[in-house]
Amino acid sequence: MTLVKTCGMTRETDIDAVNAAKPDLVGFVFAPSPRQITPVQARAFKRRLVPGIQSVGVFVNAAPTEVAELVNNGTVDVAQLHGDEDEDYIGQLRRLLDRGEIMQVFRIPPDLERAKEVLEKAKQSLADKILFDTGSKRVYGGSGEMFDWGILKNFPRPFFLAGGIGAENASDAIAAIAPHGLDASSSLETEGRKDPEKIRAFVEIVRTIDPQTNKKKAAQ
Ligand SMILES: O=C(O)c1ccccc1NCC(=O)[C@H](O)[C@H](O)COP(=O)(O)O
């Protein structure tokens, strides 16, 4: 089964929408962004989440102590490192954590040779989970821009895929490269705010994919 992550919750009503749609993970952005929230907001959102949905904190080059505090106090279950964090950083963070997991993000540049170098690093990552996103010139993440997923075909470890993913292309992505999980943010918004109907449609479409064939389940 492909896991579903919806990212960039900023309001209590967004939490109500994910509680209804039931993705596997939801993301809280702590990095500078129009979607940035405070630790106090995130704590309240985490309390409002129904059991079974994991919370993911999105960080860009934050101090490891800051990340560890939010994991260790239960605000987030997974620390998503979306900046330039390297293996030393991951080692430091790991030593500070009493619980939780680390997800390292690899941003895929348009240049094929450089993209292959990034994939080599991703294979060696010491993180528990890895995520591939578009290497945008504008922002670290949440760009809504796609990259050419073909490069990930037969990648030798499970990965999450992000970058312009939504209800319209989720089935194609699963059929093409069978990611362990899909992650979406921009496509789930209307006028910069999360849209409950778009969240529902995205989660539903991923759930209709047959895990055996990676194709849409036949109608009953
Ligand atoms: O969402 C942001 O504004 C953001 C800012 C800085 C780092 C990461 C950020 N978002 C992470 C995500 O939402 C997802 O992991 C991913 O980038 C999805 O983006 P999208 O292409 O918008 O679906």
Automatic annotation (TrEMBL):
The answer to whether keyword Amino-acid biosynthesis applies is yes
Q: What is its EC number?
A: 5.3.1.24
Annotated Gene3D superfamilies = Aldolase class I
Protein name, UniProt field: N-(5'-phosphoribosyl)anthranilate isomerase
Q: Which InterPro entries match?
A: Aldolase_TIM, PRAI_dom, RibuloseP-bd_barrel, TrpF_fam
Q: Which segments cross the bilayer? A: none
Q: Does the keyword Disulfide bond apply?
A: no
* Gene Ontology biological process terms, A to Z: L-tryptophan biosynthetic process
Q: Which UniProt keywords apply?
A: Amino-acid biosynthesis, Aromatic amino acid biosynthesis, Isomerase, Tryptophan biosynthesis
Domain N-(5'phosphoribosyl) anthranilate isomerase (PRAI), residue spans: 4-204
| Any one GO molecular-function label of the UniProt entry | phosphoribosylanthranilate isomerase activity
EC primary class: isomerase
User: What reaction does this catalyse?
Assistant: N-(5-phospho-beta-D-ribosyl)anthranilate = 1-(2-carboxyphenylamino)-1-deoxy-D-ribulose 5-phosphate
The record's HAMAP family line, in alphabetical order, gives: PRAI (MF_00135)
What does the similarity note say?
Belongs to the TrpF family.
| Gene label | trpF
Q: Which Pfam families match?
A: PRAI
Q: Which CDD domains match?
A: PRAI
Pathway participation:
Amino-acid biosynthesis; L-tryptophan biosynthesis; L-tryptophan from chorismate: step 3/5
